[in-house]
Amino acid sequence: MIVFGVILLIVGFVLAIPILWTIGVILVIIGLALWVLGRMGHKVGRRSHYF
Predict the structure, then answer these.
(1) Which domain holds residue 22?
(2) pLDDT tens for each residue of 27-46
(3) Are 12 and 20 a contacting pair, CB within 8 Å?
(4) Rounded to an integer, what distance in angstroms lies between the CA atom of residue 11 and that of residue 3?
């Protein structure tokens, strides 16, 4: 999710499409939050780890 968000950020910046930039930022933030929760030992979506 983090990688996909970064790809959308780059594509949105290069092509000057603001909606892609916004979606990319949202995906990166959600991906980082899930990653941090998984690293802290919390189960995310009934999984003991999140990749």
Answers:
(1) 2-39
(2) 999 989 888 887 777 776 66
(3) yes
(4) 12
Q: What tokens were used for 37?
A: 């929760």
Q: How many Å apart are CA 51 and CA 45, to the nearest integer?
A: 12
The enclosing H or E element of 10 equals: helix 2-14
Distance of alpha carbon 37 from alpha carbon 46, whole angstroms: 12
Non-local (6+) Cβ contacts of 8 within 8 A are 20, 21, 23, 24, 27
Q: What is the pTM of this model?
A: 0.73
Q: Which amino acid is at 24?
A: G
User: Domains in the chain: how many in total?
Assistant: 1
Within a domain: 12? yes
